[in-house]
């Protein structure tokens, strides 16, 4: 028997979530963010499922080429742009849009000789202080881009929001004002909103939105839930029990014996572990579904196995279904137990977990 650990991608849920983007930002075009292998869901699979999007955004050129080679023909934006002349030529050959966020990239474009002009998105730092040109230099960058024969005439401007995951944080309003001031006299389409912007900050929606996490059915908000935002989980991480053992009172379970049975009790062993992307530091008490009902994780997560307390489910047997997150068990909740964000959990799902797809 093959290992039963699976990350099942729910294609219909991805499409539902794209409709939710459109409902929330009805006048906008959508660049679906599929970097990091589609947030762990499989970039090609996600791009095919979301073929209705006006385009896709990835981190770098290798991710874009994977999509092109799989036949994805839509607009693809390289969110970090390119950092070498040879990559610029490939971006041209494969009709990729590039972000320009730094003077070195602009100089590279000015030096280049390309077969045809590239579509460029000028990224302005409106306050996140990560990527982007200073707002006071936006006009001079914009003019140089317009003067550059390697750049298509439709230069777009964009920025990225640092705190849109909190509906009350004043940073977003300040970033929006900074971006508006910097681009006031510049023609061309604009893009600001990530998922937090799409759902929580309608003023940031502009011409193009760039949702990532919400497409995968995960709330972008701190303490938020997918259900509250009308989203459907895009992935269910699932496996099966492969053993149910009676462990005597005082028996220490798993590596390091970090959890000790308070009584004679059934302990279930499920075939999933940190080798599959179920984080090792998830603590005892993290909920797991066995046959659709919650039981607590007990003891350390191993590479291929976890152990669960089955006292409330003494009838559970090897072969029974176990869900780690997804349908019936929000990944947002598991991320809280892990002390991280759900983005990290889904991105870390391992290749060896065969990703099945499901139309329902
Ligand atoms: C520039 C940019 N735009 C959009 C996104 C999508 O963000 P989210 O997944 O929060 O919607 C990201 C993701 O980090 C990003 O870096």
Write the layout of secondary structure elements.
Layout (H helix, E strand, L loop, with lengths): L5 E5 H14 L4 E5 L1 H5 L3 H7 L5 E4 L2 H9 L5 E4 L6 H9 L3 E4 L2 H9 L8 E4 L14 H10 L8 E3 L12 H13 L6 E2 L3 H6 L7 E2 L25 E13 L4 E2 L5 E2 L4 E6 L16 E4 L2 E6 L7 E4 L11 E5 L5 H8 L3 H6 L9 E2 L2
Parallel strand pairs: 1-18, 2-3, 2-9, 3-4, 4-5, 5-6, 6-7, 7-8
Antiparallel strand pairs: 1-10, 10-13, 10-17, 11-12, 13-16, 14-15, 14-17, 15-16
Question: What does this 3D model show about the protein?
Answer:
Helices cover 27% and strands 21% of the residues. It has 360 residues and is an alpha/beta fold. Helix 6 links the parallel strand 5 and strand 6. It is elongated. The model has no long low-confidence stretch (mean pLDDT 96). It binds pyridoxal-5'-phosphate. Pyridoxal-5'-phosphate (PLP) binds at residues 33, 79, 160, 194-196, 210-213, 220.
What is the average per-residue confidence, as pLDDT, rounded to a whole number?
A: 96
User: Would you identify the regions where 5 or more consecutive residues have pLDDT less than 50?
Assistant: none
What is the number of E strands? 18
The general outline is elongated
Annotation field: number of helices = 11
Largest sheet: 8 strands, parallel
- Main-sheet strand order equals 8-7-6-5-4-3-2-9
Task: Write down the secondary-structure element order.
Answer: EHEHHEHEHEHEHEHEHEEEEEEEEEHHE
The secondary-structure class comes to alpha/beta
Rg (C-alpha, Å)? 23 Å
Give the names of the bound compounds.
Answer: pyridoxal-5'-phosphate
Kindly state the percentage of residues in helix.
25-40%
Percent of residues in beta strands?
15-25%
Q: What is the first-to-last residue Cα distance?
A: 26 Å
